[in-house]
Amino acid sequence: MNIKFLESNIRTIPDFPMPGILFRDVTTLFKNPQCLHELSEGMSEMYRNKGITKVLGIESRGFIMGPVVANNIGAGFVTLRKPGKLPAETYSQKYEKEYGFDSIEIHKDALTPDDVVLIHDDLLATGGTMRAAYDLVKKLGVKKIYINFIIELAALNGRSVFPEDVQIDSLIVY
To answer: Rounded to an integer, what distance in angstroms lies between the CA atom of residue 120 and that of residue 4?
Structure first.
């Protein structure tokens, strides 16, 4: 995977969504067919031989690469959504954000104890949303959990909120 090529195609927007934030926009990767191909092939290769049965994508940008990787490695795809968005019975996990609380949900029948899971999202910052997703999936008793991001903002130390034995992969680290 050509990480330098991917990095060169990420749009950086200063002071968005608020002053002092340097926003890393992954939508520029998705609109470029060569970048999308690099992401698709590179991320799939990372997980092809891990026995993953389900890829979980966190709303909303996790819904873009999650199904692509799932398809490429022969796994199913499961959505992790904001409250009230899933139609069947759900489990929920509450978590704290910089400006309050939120929660994430999964269908009760989405996973089994035999599943090996990859949870994907576009960006690791402080880790709150992914940690909630990890905790939710862990409660369901799956065999193993992998975590993946396109971008990691290392200075925010989001990895520190996870147990040391969890494999966390980020393609691009700032």
So the answer is: 21
DSSP 25: E
Does pTM top 0.90 for this prediction? yes
The answer to whether residue 98 is catalytic is: yes
Q: What DSSP letter does each residue of 32-78 carry, written as one string?
A: SHHHHHHHHHHHHHHHTTTT--EEEEETTTHHHHHHHHHHHHT-EEE
Token duo for residue 161? 């909120």
pLDDT digits (tens, 9 = 90+) for 73-104: 999 999 999 999 999 999 999 998 777 899 99
CB atoms < 10 A from the CB of 36, how many? 15
Phi-psi category of 50—alpha, beta or left, where left has phi over 0 and alpha has psi -120 to 50?
A: alpha
Contact 8, 24 (CB under 8 A): no
Catalytic residue among 7, 59, 61, 159: 61
The span from the CA of 6 to the CA of 38, in Å, is 8
Of 45, 98, 131, 159, catalytic: 98
- State the pLDDT at residue 100: 81
Residue 96: per-residue pLDDT: 86
**CA–CA separation, 106 and 92 (whole Å):** 7
Q: From 171, 173, 162, select the one nearest 138 (Cα to Cα).
A: 162
